[in-house]
Amino acid sequence: MMPCWSRINILCSSVTTLSPKASGAPLSIILARNICRRAPSAFDTLRRTPSTSPAPTAKTGSIDGLSRHLRVPVVAFRTSPGHLREDDFPGFQRWEKRNERGRGNALRYGLSSVQGWRGEMEDAHAAAVALPRGLRRWSFFAVYDGHAGSRVAEHCSKHLLEHIAASNPDFQSALNEDHSDGSSSSAESVANAIRAGFLSFDESLRTLSEKHWWVHCGSTAVAVLISPRHLYFINCGDSRAVLSRGGGGGGGGGDEPYFATRDHKPDDPPERERIEQAGGVVIMRRVNGDLAVSRALGDFAYKCAPGRGPAEQPVSPEPDVVVIERREVEDGEFAVLACDGVWDVMSNEELCAFVRHRLEATDDLERVCNDVVDTCLHKGSRDNITVLLVSFSAQRHCVENMHTDLIRVVITALSKAVHLVSDCNDCTIA
User: Fold this and answer.
1) CA–CA separation, 200 vs 183, rounded Å?
2) Which DSSP category does 19 fall into?
3) How far apart are CA 192 and CA 189, in angstroms?
4) What's the rounded Cα separation, in Å, for the pair 246 and 211?
């Protein structure tokens, strides 16, 4: 949010640039166009309120004169009431959804993401139903929520998995143990290798940040690595993953998730203690009064405490890794990975209940993710939104399939009835 005096200065300077020839255009539209041109971030705070009156018209000469005076193209008015083109305003909200789907290893996934009210799309994701190099029975899904730009999140989506699995000798040795006996000790070795992969990736990212000046850019990460025996939930930051099983969570209500990752916020006691021991402070629930997460990849401006390791810095790149045996969730329904644009407006229980009810009506995971995005926007989310839904069940026998089966039964019954009537008629004639 811009300071009040800045918005007043922009508004005043916008008024002074108006030409007497601009009388044919509504003053509110011209002011909004000027404000957006002078400070695009300020326009993120505006709201578009549809009007019930017909769109105004303007004389071509007056608009052309205004365009020459402002040296920018002026709003082109539509004939439909209350709607402006998004291209008329740089930094205006973008509602185009990006969708993706896939299947493999007895899994299905769907994804939906939208830029929303933000001036830039800073989210990224990774989805691989079968990993290369002898890991075809392993799957990996992740959501990355960038801040101060999308560069770190995009780099994570392309290269983090490689640092975890392909170029990590600790992971390869732990993998051999997991293949041999699948014990809890081997699963913990894989978890330790994942943590080591995060730290090595963050160190490689430091070199790039110094080269491309990414010191103030960073990204959270939430992921799930799925092996034939285990689920490895990985979290670094305030993005979140939830796991739902049939009948709800253990010991809770029917909508309670079986498992949910823990957000890394600066005001949490363990996180605050690490930040203060590294010489940082927590002000207004932010690291040094600025960063709203206490763990992230990148953000090297907060990783400069001398004499301390990478996991002991005010902002740590070390993730939490939780291992769950797949036999514990044999009746598992789905897992949801999402950025904080979802969790700002929906609780774990609300999201699990929403997804479960939608899956009873459709097998289309993309459609379910789109419904989650639309619901979050309706609830007032102003952040980028990315939702990745992983289904552990086979093709569900949903309501749509039940309707199809019912129609098929009815058609079969009618066909048999027609044949019986025909046979009776033949017998009567004979």
Assistant:
1) 26
2) -
3) 5
4) 49
| 17-to-34, 44, 57, 59 alpha-carbon distances in Å | 9, 22, 21, 19
Task: Tell the residue number behind the tokens 């993309």, with chain if given.
Answer: 366
Give CA separation, 341 vs 146, 199, 217, in Å: 12, 26, 18
Which tokens go with 86?
A: 């998004």
State the Cα angle at 320 between 317 and 323, rounded to 5°: 145
Beta-carbon contacts of residue 149 (< 8 Å; ≥ 6 apart): 120, 122, 214, 217
**CATH architecture observed for domain 122-331+350-359:** 4-Layer Sandwich (3.60)
pLDDT tens by residue, 216-250 = 899 999 999 999 889 999 999 999 999 998 655 55
Which H/E stretch holds residue 65? helix 60-70
Question: 3-state SS of 80-124?
Answer: CCCCCCHHHCCCCCECCCEEEEEEECCEEEEEEEECECCCCCCEE
Which two tokens mark 104? 């493999």
**Residue 64 Rama label (left phi>0; alpha psi -120 to 50; beta):** alpha
The HSE-up count of residue 282 (CA atoms within 13 Å, CB side) is 19
What is the distance between the alpha carbons of residues 372 and 385, in angstroms, rounded to a whole number?
9
Angle at CA 375, nearest 5°, toward 369 and 379? 145
Nearest to 298 by CA among 234, 386, 220: 220
Tell me the domain boundaries of the chain. Answer: 4-88, 122-331+350-359, 406-430
53's tokens = 């009156």
Of 237, 137, 147, 229, residue with least CA distance to 185:
229
Higher pLDDT, 1 or 270: 270
Digit-coded pLDDT (tens) for 46-89 = 334 444 444 443 333 333 443 343 443 433 333 333 444 545 44
CA 293 to chain centre: 16
Pairwise CA distance, residues 121 & 142, whole Å = 16
Could you count the other beta carbons within 10 Å of the beta carbon of residue 56? 12
